[in-house]
Amino acid sequence: MTMGVEDLAGILHYLIPLPVVLPLFTAGVKLALGIRRPRLQQWLSVISLALVLVIGLVLMLGVHEFGPLAVQVGGWEAPIGITLVADRLSALLVTVSAAITLAVLVYSIGQGMVGKAEVAPLSVYQPTYLILVAGVSNAFLAGDLFNLYVGFEILLTASYVLLTLGGTQSRMRAGATYVVVSLVSSVLFLIAIALVFGATGTVNMAHLGERLPELSTDLRATLQIVLLFAFGIKAAVFPLAAWLPDSYPTAPAPVTAVFAGLLTKVGVYAIIRTQTLLFPGEQLNGLLMCVALATMIMGILGAVAQTDIKRLLSFTLISHIGYMIFGVALGSDQGMAGAVFYIAHHITVQTTLFLVTGLIERRGGSTSLDHLGGLGRIAPVLAVLFFIPAMSLGGIPPLSGFLGKIGLIQAGVAAGTPLAYTLVGTSVLTSLLTLYVIARVWNYAFWRRPSEGMVAEPGTVLEDVEADDTSTAALGPGEAVGPSSRLRDTTTAATTVVTSVVLPKSMVGATVALVAFSVALTVFAGPLIEYSYDAAVELQARTLYIEAVLGGDR
User: Fold this and answer.
1) Alpha helices, H only, 248-331
2) What's the rounded Cα separation, in Å, for the pair 520 and 290?
3) pTM, whole model, 2 decimals?
């Protein structure tokens, strides 16, 4: 008996919850095992995220063929029950996030972030990491505002733990800032949900897509502004991004990488849903364009002023969020397609660069440009691993960063408004300044000849721990105790790293895989751009999404 189209689509429905359920189930198993069977636990984590990646790819193919798919958790029909929805955008982001988190997990295993009970117990790091992945997937697949809120809280709660691993003063201070800012955004989001429910009687996003247009213009604008403000904090748009450069660089390299690559994009994703499904039209597009403009400029100017690679990349992260908001604010299919493509590109490239920065620290002993030099000669593989994603971030053709920026610039020119033209010019300027700061990192860290004693010798134990915090409990995962180094850098996070000529294979292998993935985004840019355009059309039309959730013809 052959399987029909409806049967295949029905099977795909059962796959939608798995990107949330699998990491949570694996985290529960690992919590039950505690510190026993560390090798088995590592394989369980890797297999779990590999399965999520495969499921994401299947969902991408399925929604491209059948359109949006929805599942009603517990059998409660929408709009009453919890709805999970996979469309082109959410399936793409689940897939990319699964690839990124899998690579970062392998990298962290190589760094020794797990399996060392005296500093970062296996029973703490990996379950927390898997819970973070589940929260991200839940946010991308959520079909109602409250479930989206739950997804945010799951990933934020896990991120609090990951950010403060090691318990040093710098990490606790950064964690406190991060917690306060996150709580403010969460409270605002919760208030927005209450206001929306009070005005419409529902929090189901498909149902809201039908009911919100019935409200008065002023009330809709108020609800939209409150939601955008809450999501803007999470996305780190200007002027709501001051917390990020002081929070992310303090964490260990793998944690910083996954934070920089994914967490802000969850906020951008929520803004896209708000602007397309809930509040279609051009009511606040001008405001969003101004936000995009300020985010690009302030972020890249902050990057220009930095001498530490982690902080520099944190500021470039902020500036490039502006590109995504630019595409959303244009309100056109072409602009939205550019934003979708750029999100996939930036998740990959930004994560890769932070992982490479971890390798730089392990080989050169610092992430400060004042203490680096000659890495191109003594570590040529590391130079290549940095060069490719860095050039992509800078927008050098024919890499994916160039293609994403060209798509957004073309959409801005097609819009033809003075504000759009201003953003086009700002986009070009931001890209040039990004290339400048990347070139400065290359020249200082890789190209210039180091002076005597500038770069740590292999085997040097580097410490950066506050004077009043010298206990082993203050060290982060995989960090060792040793004598204070002359290369102490008080501008960066409190970390302890042993430099090495031969870097751990899994760390290098995970980074190579992400570099290859970023190159694949260029090689297969044609199909991905076409997919992004189809996703943009689907987002703007809304009808298929609403019908998938509520049923019937609308």
Assistant:
1) 253-258, 264-273, 285-304, 309-330
2) 33
3) 0.88
